[in-house]
Design brief:
single chain, alpha/beta, 3-stranded antiparallel β-sheet, 24% strand
């Protein structure tokens, strides 16, 4: 798939910082024409800069992001395993906030299958997550209303922030576009930041659910340091032992599902 290939291409370029065209052709086994189209798309998004014979990472200014339909299919197996791990942390009687995003939607799908859960309150601003949980008889669902955002299922309104100021939640299951030890959790869209910050403030703990393809990437807007998180739930697809140690040095509870 084009979008997964571009995401993996960007991840590699960020890790090595500079790469030649021949190096990328050999690693990704695509035609020169296909590679050139992918690199042009990434450059137009501001994520890389094409130079003579190759490319350089433009990591400080990345804005490349996938439409939500493509996001749901990219690294699907990893997201499903992350969701199964994360949903096991949800307990009866809690009030939890579910963020918008593809990984959290997979978590909602797993939660919808849990017949043992009782007296659970779920707060979300994501239409697809809300629809997934709407018929669960033991879940009280609160949807933060507003206008649907382009190319996603999440809602936004100014009133949402006032509502969140009055909420006391146990856990916020957070999504983000990128994470790295030095820069923390970063995000593509500035418009999401105030809502995410408000959700962090009204929850006792934050659990960050993300697939490892986002490790080492840096988007334009910072959400929080990794030390702010109680738990990181990710996979081992793109992590080595050194990466795992870096994460564990900054977050007390790092859960890495095996692929």
């Amino acid at each position: 798939m084009k979008y997964q290939r571009q995401a993996e291409l960007l991840q590699y370029i960020n890790k090595v910082e500079t790469a030649t065209v021949n190096e990328l052709l050999e690693k990704f086994h695509v035609s020169k024409a296909t590679l050139n189209r992918d690199l042009t798309a990434l450059e137009q998004e501001g994520s890389i800069k094409k130079v003579y014979g190759g490319v350089v990472s433009n990591v400080e200014f990345q804005v490349f992001d996938l439409p939500i339909v493509q996001k749901e299919m990219v690294h699907r197996a990893e997201k499903e395993r992350i969701a199964r791990e994360a949903v096991g942390m949800i307990q009866s009687g809690q009030t939890v906030i579910l963020d918008s995003g593809s990984t959290i939607w997979y978590l909602a799908k797993e939660l919808a299958r849990r017949e043992d859960i009782e007296n659970l309150t779920v707060v979300t601003c994501d239409l697809k997550t809300a629809y997934t949980l709407a018929d669960h008889k033991n879940i009280s669902l609160y949807v933060l209303g507003g206008m649907k955002q382009p190319e996603s299922y999440d809602l936004f309104s100014a009133n949402m922030l006032d509502t969140l100021k009055t909420l006391n939640a146990d856990t916020y299951y957070m999504a983000g576009a990128a994470f790295a030890p030095q820069t923390g959790v970063t995000h593509t869209h500035q418009s999401d930041l105030n809502v995410k910050w408000a959700m962090m403030e009204c929850a006792r703990e934050v659990i960050f659910c993300t697939d490892s393809s986002k490790y080492g990437l840096v988007k334009r807007w910072k959400l929080c340091d990794l030390r702010r998180l109680r738990t990181i739930v990710t996979d081992d697809y793109a992590l080595n032992e050194e990466n795992e140690k870096e994460l564990r040095d900054l977050c007390d509870d790092v859960r890495i599902v095996k692929m």
